[in-house]
Amino acid sequence: xxxxxxxxxxxxxxxTWDSARAILYALGVGAGSEDPQRELKFTTENSxxxxxxxxxxxxxxxxxxxxxxxxxxxxxRSLHAEQEIRLHESLPPxxxxxxxxxxxxxQDKGSGALVTFSATFTDPATGRVLxxxxxxxxxxxxxxxGGDRGPSATWTAPDGEPDVVVRxxxxxxxxxxxxxxxxxxxxxxxxxxxARGGFDRPILHGACTYGFVGRALLHAVLGSDVDRFGAxxxxxxxxxxxxxxxxxxxxxxxxxxxxxxxxxxxRTVLGQGLLTERGAG
Length: 281
What we know:
With 281 residues, this protein is an alpha+beta fold. The chain has six helices and ten strands.
């Protein structure tokens, strides 16, 4: 792992998106799969009396083409480890943004390296910050170089039963649809590459799982109002296989919620979850 890239910042890159791309992303993270009539504002652009909106987790895919130099490593051994997204404004169905990406840190976790990078999205006309993301990728086999291990996790689930548990069914073809939003990593589609990564079959994109859970929080906590969505962060604890059901336990707080997502076997797949309502923190 090339430590010299820490602190690297890209030049601003203009990214654009349109209504169709926003819809494709929404379908890729399961919008409309439980009840097609419930999420028409995310899955259509011409329904009577419905104004199209963009899912709050959409910035994760529109910034993917910005260069993120980690060094030379086997992409099949890279897993999505943690994700944070913060929305300052709700994105329109058609728009553009200037994106600057930066490599924040590379931590030595022993069995692998945790690479954390950020991306900031600004309005090209005004310079206003629209959104920001922070992504951690765990690269197996790249640890042991004597670097800083980073802080230990201290998050624990609240006591008592959750306020609500949201169940979402993924499809066996889910990653084949989600990859059309920009993440063509064959770990999620090619059985040979999945085996090289240590899996018996392709796994669901971590960002797709994150998008599913973002929808669950949007509807269960924020009344389906994208303008109330402030920030969401979580750590990926285990892979999800296409076709598994996600169970997200949600405890509401004064400024949002904390959450944990498990698969149908009870294994935690997304942990240390925190949702903050916009303007609350």
